Amino acid sequence: MSQGESEIQPVKKAFRTVTPPYHGHPDSEMNAIGIAIFLGLLVLMVPLLPFLVIVWAISKLTEALAQKAPIGDEEQ
Q: What's the angle, vertex CA 15, arms to CA 14 and CA 17, rounded to 5?
């Protein structure tokens, strides 16, 4: 610290306000909504999973075949 600076002191006067202080509480309603949305997405995605795997496998297969195929005028 430089010589002109003093140490930080705690606040001695409280900030006055008209509203009562807010004390947090667990938000179980929002937790229940989040869990319900997750379960809904899970119910939708599980039946679609085999189709997603098939599309992924086809894309990997075509990518592998495209790398092996000759391109343009390489035979000349």
A: 130
